[in-house]
Amino acid sequence: ARLLRASMLDVAGQRHVTWARLRGLNDKQTERRHILRNASLPMITAVGMHIGELIGGTMIIENIFAWPGVGRYAVSAIFNRDYPVIQCFTLMM
């Protein structure tokens, strides 16, 4: 929430937002079309980085509790030297 708020405040002060307001768009349209669309880019980056952490945590949990899944498949691929699977898992993380 902090990242999105800081990004929205940063984008709200830019020229294209001022021009949109001068053009006569109301606040909701300006917020939706110009501010939120440009402010969501850092959020997408942060979410992408957290997905790698979640997959890494899944890998640990699946090995501790012996649950079948993607993490366990990746660990068995590492032990069996299955390079295409390792590359795919690394790309996902």
From TrEMBL:
Q: Which GO terms describe its cellular component?
A: plasma membrane
The membrane topology of this protein is: Multi-pass membrane protein
Task: Report the locations given in the UniProt record.
Answer: Cell membrane
Please report a single Pfam family linked to this protein. Answer: BPD_transp_1
Q: Where is the ABC transmembrane type-1 domain?
A: 1-93
Show the InterPro entries listed in the entry: MetI-like, MetI-like_sf
A GO molecular function annotation here is: dipeptide transmembrane transporter activity
> Keyword set for this entry?
Cell membrane, Membrane, Transmembrane, Transmembrane helix, Transport
Q: Does the keyword Transmembrane helix apply?
A: yes
What family is this? Belongs to the binding-protein-dependent transport system permease family. OppBC subfamily.
Q: What is this protein called?
A: ABC transporter permease subunit
Q: Which organism is it from?
A: Xanthomonas citri pv. citri
Q: What is the lineage of its organism?
A: Bacteria, Pseudomonadati, Pseudomonadota, Gammaproteobacteria, Lysobacterales
